[in-house]
Amino acid sequence: MNEGPKSERLPPSVSGLFDVAYAAYAGRIWLYLGLAAFVFVAGCIVEVAIPAANLDTPAGELKVIALWYASIFADAYVVAIVALGVAARVAGEEATPRRLTAAALARWLPVIATSVIVQAVVFFTNSLSGLGPLPDPPALVFVTAPLVWLVWGMLSLALPITALAEERPAFAVFAGLTRAIAFSMRRPNLSRLAIVSFVSIVPALLQDIAFGALVRYQIPRPFFWANFPIDALTVGPVAAVQTIFAIDMARRAADQRSA
């Protein structure tokens, strides 16, 4: 996806962008619900295959890492297929489920690589995000959390941009990351960046709340139940919103350059 894509079908308002995103998602709801089931089943396979262990033990840490990578791999395919489907709708193109699944498969590895980079940034900045353990002093989070959320939102756009990039897979990761940053830093896009950042952190916020509740009430397998059901239900809709905002921000960046 480059600056100046076909975007005549995009409305100028933020509410209109949400309408288009969810109309595009609802238009292939059964395909996307099947993908949600795929994400959940992938987590179930890892959860069952690796024996349960306390999270603060080496075996427990290994299981969390395995579940984390299972989520990255499954989510990357969902993001790729949703991004391609939404972009096709915006461009007014016909895209059958078979075409979408094949095209998403071709972009799967670049999206996985992009997701690993993004998740690494999330991991190293998580203590400053207000989600999970608080920094010292705790009041610091009131300054750092909004900035971290904006960085996360900016990088979250790299996943659909990578899926839509016209470059060869080997260069699509670089294109996705650099364009996500370039589009987000344009002045006309800053308010939209704040909105997409909030949307992007909602699943993590819900997962953090769910994990705390499950641990408090000593529910077995808290990491799995706090993360995978929410992830399966939200990854598709959130990817649809991120894709629409990425396309719109590319359009607005191109308009600013041509002005």
Give the key terms.
single chain, 259 residues, mainly alpha
Walk me through what this model shows.
This protein has helices at 14-27, 29-49, 58-90, 97-125, 141-156, 158-164, 169-184, 190-216, 222-258. The chain is mostly helical. The chain has one domain (14-254). The chain starts with 13 loop residues before the first helix and ends with a helix.
How many individual domains?
1
> Ranges with pLDDT <50 over ≥5 residues?
4-8
| SSE sequence, one letter per element | HHHHHHHHH
Structural class: mainly alpha
Rg over CA atoms, rounded to whole Å, is 18 Å
**C-alpha end-to-end distance:** 21 Å
Largest sheet: none
* Total helical elements: 9
Shape descriptor: globular
Strand content: under 5%
Number of strand segments: 0
What is the averaged pLDDT score? 90
Give the assembly state of these chains: single chain
Q: Helix proportion of residues, in percent?
A: over 70%
